[in-house]
Specification:
The complex is a heterodimer. By secondary structure, chain A is an all-alpha fold. Chain A is built from nine helices and two strands, in the order ααααββααααα. Chain A has a two-stranded antiparallel sheet with strand order 1-2. Classes of the chains: A mainly alpha, B mainly alpha.
C-alpha cells in the first residue's frame, strides 16, 4: 500500500494544472458526444503528455511560470532541435519563433501556406489524407509550443483581472450555448437543423473546395499568429 | 421566431460581445485587454502555451477533416 501516497501526490499535482483538467473534461465530453475517436485522442493524448511532464518536473511554486526541461532530452526534441539548427544556420540573423517558423511572414511562406490550403481544401472529407493535412501543421504547432521557453514576466504586460474575466465569460457562454444546442439535438450523434451547433452551421461553408481552402488558410494563419506569441 | 433563429442569434450575440470587447481594448487606458494580450498571458506558462496550441490543432481536426 506504500504506492498509494506517491500516487495520490501525483494525481494532486496533475489536477492543480487547470489546462490538464480542461483537456481531460473536454476529451471525456468528446467521447460522450460520439465524436470521431481522433478528436478525443488529440485532447486526451495532450492531457496525458502534460500530466507526465508535470509529474516529472514536480509542482511549480504558486504563480510561477512552469520551467522548461531541455527539449533535447526527448526524441521529438532532438529532431526539432536538429531541424531548427540547420534551418537557423541557413538563414543567419533572422529571428525565429520556436525555431520552427519565421517571426515575420516571408513571401515564400505565405505562398506556400496558400498553396497548402488550396491543395488540402481539395482533399475528400472524412478521409485519412485530410486528417494528415491537418495533423502535420498541428503537430508542428504543438511541438513548437512544447519547446519554446516560457516568456519572462517583464515581456508580458500585466492585464486587468476584470478584463480577462470578461473574455473568459464570453468563451464560457459560447461553450454553454454550444452545449445547449448539442443537448437539444434528437441524439448526441444526430445533427439538428432546429438547434444547430457551430459544426452544423459551418457545414455548408466547409462543404466546398473553396470554403475548405479558405478555412485551411484561416486556420494556418491563426496557428502562425499563436506560435509567434 | 424559430428555435433555429434563436440559436443563431445567440451565436451572433456572443460573437458581438467578443468584437465589442476587442474594440474596447483599443481605447487608451481601457481595463479590457485585447484577446491577443489575454492569449499572451495564458501562453506565458508551458501548459498554457501547449494548451492553446492544442486547442488550435483540435479546431483544425474538428472542422477541416470532415
Amino acid at each position: 500500500m506504500g504506492w498509494l501516497a506517491p500516487s495520490g501526490r501525483a494525481v494532486a499535482t496533475v489536477l492543480r494544472d487547470p489546462v490538464i483538467v480542461i483537456f481531460l473534461l473536454a476529451g471525456v465530453a468528446e467521447i460522450l458526444a460520439g465524436d470521431p475517436l481522433v478528436d478525443c485522442l488529440v485532447l486526451l493524448t495532450v492531457a496525458a503528455a502534460l500530466s507526465w511532464d508535470r509529474i516529472r518536473r514536480g509542482p511549480p511554486a504558486d504563480g510561477e511560470p512552469a520551467g522548461e526541461p531541455d527539449p533535447r532530452g526527448t526524441v521529438a526534441g532532438v529532431w526539432l532541435a536538429s531541424a531548427a539548427d540547420a534551418d537557423a544556420a541557413s538563414r543567419p540573423g533572422q529571428a525565429r519563433v520556436g525555431r520552427l517558423v519565421p517571426a515575420r511572414p516571408t513571401r515564400a511562406w505565405v505562398i506556400a501556406g496558400l498553396l497548402y490550403a488550396v491543395a488540402a481544401g481539395g482533399l475528400a472529407r472524412f478521409s485519412w489524407p485530410a486528417l494528415v493535412a491537418v495533423a502535420g501543421p498541428g503537430l508542428v504547432g504543438v511541438l513548437s509550443a512544447w519547446r519554446t521557453p516560457p516568456t519572462p514576466s517583464v515581456e508580458a504586460a500585466p492585464i486587468h483581472a476584470s478584463g480577462a474575466a470578461a473574455w473568459a465569460a464570453v468563451f464560457v457562454v459560447l461553450a454553454l450555448w454550444e452545449l445547449g444546442a448539442l443537448l437539444l439535438q434528437p441524439a448526441l450523434t444526430i445533427d439538428s437543423p432546429a438547434h444547430p451547433t457551430i459544426s452544423v452551421l459551418l457545414d455548408p461553408v466547409l462543404g466546398s473546395h473553396l470554403g475548405r481552402s479558405v478555412g485551411f488558410a484561416v486556420w494556418l494563419a491563426l496557428g502562425w499568429l499563436l506560435v509567434r506569441q | 421566431m424559430t428555435s433555429r433563429a434563436i440559436t443563431i442569434v445567440g451565436y451572433l450575440l456572443i460573437t458581438g460581445c467578443g468584437v465589442t470587447l476587442e474594440l474596447s481594448s483599443r481605447h487608451p487606458g481601457s481595463p479590457v485587454p485585447s484577446l491577443g494580450a489575454v492569449l499572451r498571458q495564458v501562453m506565458r506558462t508551458r501548459s498554457g502555451r501547449i494548451g492553446v496550441m492544442t486547442a488550435w490543432a483540435w479546431l483544425g481536426v474538428h472542422f477541416l477533416t470532415r
